[in-house]
Amino acid sequence: MPFVMVTTSSALAQVDLNLGKAARNLGATGAQAFRTIALPQIRPAVMSGALFAFITSLDEVVISSFISGGENATLTKKMSSGLRHQVDPTSAAVSSLLIGVTGVLRLAVILLSRRGGERQAPGRSKDPRTVPDRAGGYAG
């Protein structure tokens, strides 16, 4: 819970409320304004908070053993009981899946950061002769 609160509250503190008010003035409903204005601004923080919650839930075997009962069993409890009582391939499959997903996400971040590094802001150029100086003229 603390990881989710810290990441989400920091994103919520940076949301520009004037954009939501402007959307409401232009005829959007409250739900439409949230979905199109606020949610895209906080989406990365919400996703990282969900990822933190999922990762920490895999480590909470004691809490999941108290919460789950009867036919309802969490993945963490099944993995723990599979390691204690019998040799169960569920733990190996989940571990392989988590390692594979982590590797794919890491490659995606590397590729996106390389592609994003090649982009520049509109109106910006690498050539210093095409960048206007302070007086409004060009260096070249």
Question: What's a concise summary of this model?
Answer:
By secondary structure, the chain is an all-alpha fold.
Low-pLDDT ranges: none
State the shape. elongated
Cα separation of the termini: 56 Å
Average the pLDDT over all residues and give the rounded result. Answer: 75
- Would you report the number of β strands? 0
- How many alpha or pi helices? 6
Report the portion of residues in β strands: under 5%
Order of helices and strands: HHHHHH
- Rg from alpha-carbon coordinates: 24 Å
Helix content: over 70%
| Structural category | mainly alpha
Biggest sheet architecture: none
Describe the structure.
This protein is mainly α and 140 residues long. Helix content is 71%, strand content 0%. It contains six helices and no strands. Helix 1 (2-13) packs antiparallel against helix 3 and helix 2 (17-25) packs antiparallel against helix 3. The longest helix has 30 residues, at 30-59. The protein is elongated and about 60 Å long. The termini are far apart.
Features:
single chain; 140 residues; mainly alpha; elongated
Note the topology:
Blueprint: H1 2-13, H2 17-25, H3 30-59, H4 61-67, H5 75-85, H6 89-118
Helix pairs in contact: 1-3, 2-3
